[in-house]
Amino acid sequence: MLEFLKQKEKPPERILVLVDYENVAREASVEGKIVDFEKLATLCRNLGVVVASYIFIPHHFYDSWVEAAYNQGFHALTLPSRSDYKTVKQMYSADTAMISVGASYSDAIDQIVIVTNDGDLSTLANQARNKKKRVVLISGEKVSPILLKVVDINYPIPLQDRRK
Q1: pTM of the full predicted structure?
Q2: 131-149 burial: b if 16+ Cβ within 10 Å, else e
Q3: Contact 74, 53 (CB under 8 A)
Q4: Mind listing the domains of the chain with CATH numbers?
């Protein structure tokens, strides 16, 4: 009788996940750990529907964990490492690539998940917020205070022992 008063269920949020692996791996490796991609994928799926997920890694980081990440739905994009910047243009950095990919998905998502500690990605977070997107940060303990100021929520990055 009063069907029109029933509220329609809101569709799940569409999410883009971008992982700055070299950045978060440095902090984790000090403790002998690596990113737990199974737990990271679960966390992201709990936030909504993952439209796409990318890991930005330097070409020399390719290891067995890349297959584990791929099995959880992450696609690896290899880039020059920070040590290569003397010979490679800055435009090929993970930061620049993540900002570019984030901008290309901006009309297809409701929120962006950024996995990093790097304050340079506050540019990406601000771009997303300007488009009214929710910004989720997944980071380590040594996260940039600048980045923390421009995100909606921050979760700790899930880690596991390197030898798991």
Answers
A1: 0.84
A2: eebbbbbbbbeebbeebee
A3: yes
A4: 12-161 (3.40.50.1010)
Mean pLDDT by 10 residues, the chain (164 residues): 59 92 88 92 95 86 71 78 55 79 92 95 95 96 94 95 73
- d(C-alpha 94, C-alpha 121), whole Å: 10
For residue 100, what are the contacts with CB-CB under 8 A and spacing of at least 6?
none
Query: 3-state SS of 90-152?
Result: HHHCHHHHHHHHHHHCCCCCCEEEEECCCHHHHHHHHHHHHCCCEEEEEECCCCCHHHHHCCC
